Amino acid sequence: MPQVQFSYPAKGIQITKGMPTPKKMAQLEAWYKEARKVIPSIPEIGLPDKDGRLWKEYDVPHVGADYIRRTYVNNIGERSYLVIARKISFLGR
């Protein structure tokens, strides 16, 4: 079972949970959608969060065979990080 880890250092949030493999495994957005179902606090690009902050992608996501890594930045400069481990051993759990 894949795992998702979300970190938002400015608020002291770090969450790791198991997640189901999306049906459309080849589509990157399907992985993000499944991750947001498990951890709703993961920001959506271009939409305000509950505090009214707008998020965008900070850099190009890293997509590998073992994991997907995405960095977000909001309109006041705070960053958050998302790692989706496609193989459970990657996060060491």
Descriptive account of the structure:
The protein is mainly beta and 93 residues long. The chain has one domain (3-91). Helix content is 12%, strand content 34%. It contains one helix and six strands, in the order ββαββββ. Strands 1, 2, 3, 4, 5 and 6 form a six-stranded antiparallel sheet that branches. Strand 1 and strand 2 (13-18) form a beta hairpin. The chain is globular and about 35 Å long.
Order of SSEs: EEHEEEE
Name the helicity range: 10-25%
Global Rg? 13 Å
Report the count of strand segments. 6
Name the overall outline. Answer: globular
| Structure annotation, total helices | 1
- Structural class assignment: mainly beta
Taken together, the total number of domains comes to 1
Task: Give the overall pLDDT as a whole number.
Answer: 87
| Biggest sheet features | 6 strands, antiparallel
Uncertain stretches of 5 or more adjacent residues: none
End-to-end Cα distance, whole Å, is: 11 Å
Approximately how much beta-strand content do the residues carry?
Answer: 25-35%
Question: Brief description of this entry?
Answer:
With 93 residues, this protein is mostly beta strands.
Topology overview:
Blueprint: E1 3-8, E2 13-18, H1 28-38, E3 55-57, E4 62-63, E5 67-74, E6 79-85
Antiparallel strand pairs: 1-2, 1-6, 3-5, 4-5, 5-6
Supply the key terms.
single chain, mainly beta, 6-stranded antiparallel beta sheet, 1 helix, 34% strand
